[in-house]
Amino acid sequence: MFDTVILQVRPYAKLKRDIRSIIKDFSVRYKVYRDANSMSGPHITLIDLSGITHTYEDIADRARQIANKTEPFKAYIDGIASFSQLNRKGGPIHKKYNYVIYLKIVENDYLLDLHRRLVSKFGKEYAIHKNFVPHITISHKDLDTRKFNKALKEFKHFEFKRSFTVNGIWLYTHSEGIKAKARYVKFGGNRSGTSKKGINTGHRKGVV
Fold first, then answer.
1. pTM tops 0.85
2. Measured between alpha carbons, how far is 173 from 21 in angstroms, rounded to an integer?
3. 173/175 Cα distance (integer angstroms)
4. Hey, where are the domains in the chain?
5. 3 state DSSP class of 63
6. Are 203 and 189 a contacting pair, CB within 8 Å?
7. At the fourth CATH level, which superfamily is domain 4-190?
8. Backbone angles phi and psi of 121, in degrees to 5
9. Three-state secondary structure call for residue 97
10. What is the crossing angle of helices 13-30 and 145-154, to 10°?
11. N or C end: fewer C-beta atoms under 10 angstroms in the chain?
12. Residue 184, helix vs strand vs coil
């Protein structure tokens, strides 16, 4: 039995390599070696199910019910942003806050709706954070206040604009001492890889 199942979307291979290069550069520059993408690769977390009470197959089936009613859409990356969160577990250096540096995902109606429907499907059994900030993490481990402030200053004008098509949901398992599993659930609105109506952009007004 796995402790955690994370439902994610992931960029295509070339973009993942570009993002890994940014993460590697960041790690070397600030001596941060415990990045959040080391196991499952660069991704956007949709929901994080901890304390699993269902089988993996049951969770996959429920995710598939959502995916079958979803069409492909575009996700847009636009630069770097950050936030800090209270560290309730102490962490490796027992700091008060976890400082998170991430690639910012442009607010997108289709991405927000996908998250909302997943929360509706799983939220009664699992404690899910409803304050959804879609992002691809660059670093959130071993980053103290000094390094965090230095990184924000040095990356203030960093430009990284990319887009990728979201065609499905990845289910990634995590549990101490157990080999991780990953499964891809393709959107039902795009069985052949192209939508009859084209790819949804999900743009908010004023977003290019």
1. no
2. 24
3. 7
4. 4-190
5. helix
6. no
7. Cyclic phosphodiesterase (3.90.1140.10)
8. -75, -35
9. strand
10. 120
11. C
12. strand
